[in-house]
Amino acid sequence: MKRIALFLIVALALFSAVGGYNGTNANATNLSDNTQVQDTMILGKLYFVNLKEGEKPIMTGLILSGNRCGSAGFNNKPYAIEGIRSVFELDEWVEFYPQANAKTGIKVMVFKHKADQGFYQKNKLNDETPDYIQECELNKDPDAEENSQWGTFCLHPEEVNPGYYDFVFIYNNKVFATMVTKFYKPDELFEKSDSELEKLMVQRINQ
After folding, report:
1. Which of 44, 70, 48 lies closest to 165, judged by CA?
2. CA 112 to CA 130: how far, in whole Å?
3. What distance in Å separates the CA atoms of residue 25 and residue 36, rounded to the nearest whole number?
4. Any residues with CB less than 8 A from the CB of 183 and at least 6 apart, and which?
């Protein structure tokens, strides 16, 4: 009987230790540790690269906003590492609002979506990299209001096609996170409600 009681106490202690962790990275996915994530990636989720146990990424949350679709509430969600707005129209300006430990030096590069997300770690990225679209520097203007955007860009329908795109986040010339987004034809999302837009965001990208 004592052995059973002791076993139950040890099991409860282990469960408490595992379930009690509530750090910044509790819901983070590290591409380096979980290669299966490449098989079923989720729209609007930051996949961190080479993140050590307990280490905070340089960017701990993100808000993305657009100028064509959705209400103010849909475009001004709380900082998050998943559930980030990830559906846009081509020709829509995408605005970045990072929650970051650095105010300058962060860059986002846009590529056509790759099934092998490890490509971004293995290769030097520049404007000659296959499937490169464009890039945007993310810097917090010290003279701007606290909630001002750090950078913005637009994918033009005359230059690219609707489909999935990777946002690749870089700091000090090293990739630290990727996120998959989906771009639609101009005016394809314009009249959709917030709930309809949310449904489009809840999808897995099967490779």
Report:
1. 44
2. 9
3. 18
4. 87, 88, 89, 90, 155, 160, 162, 163, 165
Q: 3-class SS at 152?
A: strand
Sign of CA dihedral 56, 178, 85, 34: negative
Eight-state DSSP code of residue 92: P
- Whether this model's pTM surpasses 0.90: no
Could you give the CA distance from residue 10 to residue 151 in angstroms, rounded to a whole number?
A: 51
Cα separation values, 199 from 43, 84, 85, 183, 196, Å? 11, 13, 11, 15, 5
* Digit-coded pLDDT (tens) for 28-78: 566 544 333 345 789 999 999 978 888 888 999 999 999 999 999 999 999
Residue 47's nearest CA partner among 174, 177, 198 is 177
Strand partners, 108: 136, 169
